[in-house]
Prior knowledge:
Elements: H1 2-10, H2 15-23, E1 30-31, E2 44-45, H3 63-82, E3 88-89, H4 97-109, H5 113-116, H6 125-142, H7 149-156, H8 159-173, E4 178-180, H9 183-195, E5 203-205, H10 214-220, H11 237-255
Parallel strand pairs: 1-2, 3-4, 4-5
Helix pairs in contact: 2-11, 3-8, 4-6, 4-7, 4-9, 7-9, 8-9, 9-10
Amino acid sequence: VTRLVAKKMGRGESSVGKMAKKTGVDVIPVDIGICSEEPIQGLRQKKVAQGTRNFRTGPAMSEEEMLAAISCGIELAEECRDQGYRLLGTGEMGIGNTTTSSAVAAALLGCTAEDVTGYGAGLSKEGFERKKKVIEEALQNYRFQKEDAFRILQTVGGLDLAGLAGVIIGGAMYHIPVVLDGVISGAAALAAERMVPGVRQFLIASHQSKEPVAGKLLDALSLQPVLYAGLALGEGTGAVMMFSLLDIAADYYRNAMKFSDMDILPYSRFT
């Protein structure tokens, strides 16, 4: 399913592609670890590995893979800076990555699986219970310290999360604000902040998704979301929606009529 949706994304036919065309946003889809040998047209080929490994049987990534994925994100941020982009947004598409992001969030926040796990794209009750069990087993088996963000992300994260963390770190390095999408972006952002304290100052939260851990992640980052719409689509769609709101706000800030334009005295404030 990941590969099939990625093909649609490469052609601009996925949800974010259609929204981006409407709002004038450029989408840069990147294959950082799809489990397929087939090059997908329209995607930047930055594959670190053929999929992320099963964290029930061992770490999801090696240290080398983790660093390569983070470096990929930083390099993309630098490339965008060089091309003149002044605002970035994060997004992702990978079936099953609310499991990895929930596991990362639980470890970083010191929460239980019960606290963080949601239904994702629409699991059955049986699937939901299995998802919680897998996350709880990982928390017990690996015995994380919540300060050890690198090990957490490497062990129960994914190549997509590591790449997003790199974009967020790169945004801070090159002084480009980054608009976060949903819960997967939020988990990557908290990992990035723990690894490189201070990157959160360059982050804008677009929305709070319906996943139960979404609010906890934003609270840990001291970020206030703008949209509360129960979104769960991913792909960066929430960030694209936020771009439009930022355009409106910036235009109003520059061009709104002021009291002085209407011969009205400014308000006086009394304390």
